[in-house]
Amino acid sequence: MKRENSNRLFEKAKKLIPGGVNSPVRACKSVDSSPVFINRADGCRIFDEDGNEYIDYIGSWGPMIFGHRHPAVIDAIHSALKNGTSFGAPTGLEIKLAEMIIEAVPSIEMVRMVNSGTEAAMSAIRLARGFTGRDMIIKFDGCYHGHSDALLVEAGSGVATLGIPGSPGVPESFVSGTLSLPFNNIKSVEEAMEKHGSEIACIIVEPVAGNMGLVLPGDGFLQALRSLTEKYNALLIFDEVMTGFRVAYGGAQSVYGIVPDLTCLGKIIGGGLPVGAYGGKREIMEHIAPQGPVYQAGTLSGNPLAMAAGIATLTELKKPGFYDSLNSMSEKLGKGLFDAAKKAGINVSVAISGSMLGMFFTKEKVIDFESAKKSDLKMFASYYRNMLQNGIYLAPSQFEALFVSSAHSAEDIDQTVYAAGKVMSELNGKQ
Ligand code: KE4
Fold first, then answer.
1. Kind of enzyme, top EC level (predicted)?
2. All domains in the chain, ordered by first residue
């Protein structure tokens, strides 16, 4: 597979942009590779600067639930564009998207738009601290909520991939109030709440973890978080930046029947344009400026192009049967990968949540970050590189999830499974 143009562009990019990328995981370091530079995408296919074509399972890390260039989203952006790109003033579009989000997610009675998932989580944490008057927060190892200082401890996603627990530049004082516990470990949460309950402002969790690979919540885990936060008058924040409108129209909270106090959103609600949001109970959200004292602001918050793309996206997602047919493709892929690995004599653990998938090279059940890290990371790196060679564009990290879109056909899934079988047989041959 030709890589001359991508390699040349990467060398140039590395002189101008740290690591040659604008987000660390894109540098493909953890899989001993280098990035292909993308020129365009269409449907479930993505094309690089050397003319190579791939079936795309990153989908811009989640937003592209329809695949690329869905006509309704493109048209909505074009129409909004005719009126201008940004006003820094309220628009009717913001009201429309707020109404759709509030209607989709009953726990959200008020919502504030921001420009990224990081901003959404950072603002929700500040709101929880301002509302409760408490400073401590609990998160979970391997869960990633963006790169705001207080949350960058034992994070998942990029930080986990780079193996940097926390990060230089984050003062000890900024994280001394952050407790990071093992995901799915109810006992550790009970102990932490018994010890610090009166100081805990909130527990923030990815209800389905997508930043340590895909790890599902164990039976009763989310309910336990809800009960413990109620018992100690702390807030429960669901970070649904990835799962929101992905695993169901109402998000993971609708699948698991849990009502959080605050929810963070992003990715899909912007249709591929920069967006984030946080929302929840009215009595909490009314503490946000200018209605209340907790400050949060943003030049491009509620940007009309992003709002138009989000409205078009949620309008399409609401259509009857969308998730049933999307999730059936995802099931087909998950089963196909598991069967291909079995046939190749390779142990894998596959997890599926709606159209999010994860596959670890291990025969053990992966329930948290520790068990995720025990999987065969070298095997994953070889698998990633060989799948790319075979035209399959996977996340360049074991600690990410795969995304199936409504543009992936049964034939695309078959082609993917065929490639996986070929690659895994070769990998086993080399073992
Ligand atoms: P952004 O600031 O990247 O928009 O969102 C941060 C964030 C917050 N919460 C969750 C659950 C997330 O998954 C993310 C970001 N996800 C990563 C992919 N795992 C973004 C990819 C990247 O960092 O380049």
1. isomerase
2. 4-69+321-430 (3.90.1150.10), 71-317 (3.40.640.10)
